[in-house]
Write a structure and sequence with these properties.
It is built from two helices and five strands; from the N terminus they run βαββββα. By secondary structure, it is an alpha+beta fold. β4 and β5 form a beta hairpin. The longest helix has 16 residues. This is IclR-ED domain-containing protein.
Length: about 90
């Protein structure tokens, strides 16, 4: 998990890169925050890896990568669940 603070466009920056990205998929909001599955270079889902990016503000992204094994059935689902738990914790819900 990391916060990406280097860009001034937040999640919008990933939308701008969606055509060039190896993987870009809109997903339902996570705890009310917009989110996407994103990988700029390669679709790693068959290897058990997935990254979810959550727009926490107009300029802040919460990135939640999961690195499993090829036997990991749903790495993106795991990343989405982890993102939800992280957001709950940040908001003081845990």
């Amino acid at each position: 998990m990391s916060f990406l603070t280097g860009n001034k466009r937040g999640l919008s920056n990933l939308y701008l890169k969606r055509k060039e990205a190896a993987l870009f998929q809109e997903i339902p909001p996570i705890n009310g925050y917009p989110a996407v599955i994103f990988d700029e270079y390669a679709d790693q889902r068959s290897r058990g890896a997935c990254s979810v990016a959550v727009g926490m503000s107009d300029t802040l992204i919460l990135a939640v990568p999961v690195q499993g094994t090829p036997q990991t059935k749903d790495p993106c689902g795991i990343a989405q669940q982890a993102a939800g738990l992280i957001i709950e914790n940040i908001k003081g819900g845990v």
